Structure formats: C-alpha cells, structure tokens
Amino acid sequence: MLPLVTVVTPSYNQGEFIEETILSVLNQTYKNIQYIIVDGGSTDNTMDIVNTYRDRIDIVIHERDNGQSDAINKGFKLAKGELVTWINSDDILYPECVEQIVKLYQLHNDGAVYYGALVDHIDRTGNLIRVKKRFIKDKAYLLNEDYDVTQQGSFYPLKLVQKVNYVDESIHYCMDLDLWLRLLEHGSIYSYNEKSITGFRKWEGTKTSTGTRKFLRDIKSALLRNGASPFAKTILKIHYYTFKSRVKDFLIKSKLYSDKK
User: Fold this and answer.
1) 67, 148, 192, 209: most buried by Cβ count inside 10 Å?
2) b/e for 159-196, b at 16 or more Cβ within 10 A?
3) Is residue 239 included in any domain, yes or no?
4) pLDDT band at 248 (very low <50, low <70, confident <90, very high)
5) CA distance 5 to 7
6) Is residue 217 part of a domain?
C-alpha cells in the first residue's frame, strides 16, 4: 500500500497567494495525502478562500498562534502520514512533487530528509526568475560548507520529526535549517534532481526579504548550536553578509539625511 503523506500549510494573511498553494496540493498526481491548513487568525480573505476548498482539506485550524514554527508544529502533531512536509502559503508544489518524493522514499528508506534539488524561484505573479540547484551531502556540509537548504519540497519521516521533538518554536527565520541539522543526526539525505518539483515565491513580503540581519543571526545560532566551528566557512560568510547589510543600511540612511539637507 502506498504510504500516507501529510502536507501542512501554515498561513497568515496570504489571501493573495493561498488559493494557488491549496490547488497545488489538491492537484497532486499522488492521491494518498492528508492535507492540513493551520491559519494564525487571518483578517484578510484567506479563510474565505480556504472555506471554498474545505471539503477537500482534511483539517483546518483557524486560531491565533505564536508564529510560523508554532503553526507548523500544530500540523505535524496532527499528522498521520509516514512522511510529512510543510509548504508555505505563498509557495507551490508542482503536480508530481509528492509522487517523486514517495518513489525516492521507497528506494531509500533509511533517509531523514528527502528533497527536490531543483527549485523554481518565481515572482509575485508566478513568472520564473531562475532555477536554483542545491546538492546537499550531509549534516557536515550544511555546518561547514553551505547552510542553504531547500525547504519547499523537502519531506521527513514523521517518526524522526517526533524523535527530534518537532520544529524549534523559538526560531523565527531558519527553523527549516535547524530541523534538517537535527534530523540528519538520525539518517541520510536523498534528493530528486531530474527537474523542479516546487516553486518558491520571491516577493517583498517574505520574511527573508524583510529581516535580513535577524535571519542571519538565526542561522548563525542554529549552526553553532548544532556543532559548527566559530571559524567554519558558513559562520565567516554570515559575518560577511551581516557587514554588507550594515554598510547598505548606513549608505541608505546617509543618502536620506543628505537629501533632507
């Protein structure tokens, strides 16, 4: 029998995009899916859209939460699937995403992370910006070489997510990286690399666009907590990006000040 897969969508005021996200899950070629939407009390039209598809969504939660990590954990704790994932309410899964990941899982049942190595970066209206490729070898690679993970289209055995005590709710920006690092203590990582199976939406409202230095601080903390050396390439890269961000902010403020004179 084909394994059940649980997909969780955390959401808050994403009425502009959430219908596309919902349809991308409902229209998967793989049908043995439990779909859970966890909405943090949206005040826009998000719930009007969710309610349109409610008869096809297994669980809908609509209540205040303590942020994205809390919402993800609410979904994971209700999950029944062998594999679990979350897809944010502005991103999309392509139709064969779950099917291809399940095939990968059936070939390699010792994994802790299964992910699509190619991800389409799309703009606000869904146009392709670029295709990003990520080939991640193991935990050591993330700690010491490149900390960038591909959350969209990454799936995890539920029993391992439970074993590592779910997503760390104290982390606001890089909960995915921290989860990967903890999961990879308990299994291997496998990738599907034939084509893109997800779309990651790049627009000005994403957390990675609005909180650069906070994002970098979260990454540094997660890396060090999970075993990175203070002198690892990843940590030095964070120092460099933080410096660039500070210089950029200084130049912007200087220009604004000079323009007012």
Assistant:
1) 192
2) ebbeebebbbbebbbbbbbbbbbbbbeebebbbbeeeb
3) no
4) confident
5) 7
6) no
Q: Which CATH number do you get for residue 70?
A: 3.90.550.10
As for how many domains the chain has, the answer is 1
Q: What is the pLDDT of residues 130-160, one digit of tens each?
A: 999 999 999 999 999 999 999 999 999 999 9
Sign of CA dihedral 158, 164, 165, 168: negative
- Half-sphere exposure (Cβ direction) of 62: Cα atoms closer than 13 Å: 13
Give tens-digit pLDDT for 84-124.
999 999 999 999 999 999 999 999 999 999 999 999 999 99
* Mean predicted confidence (pLDDT) in 188-210: 83
**Structural domain containing residue 169:** 5-203
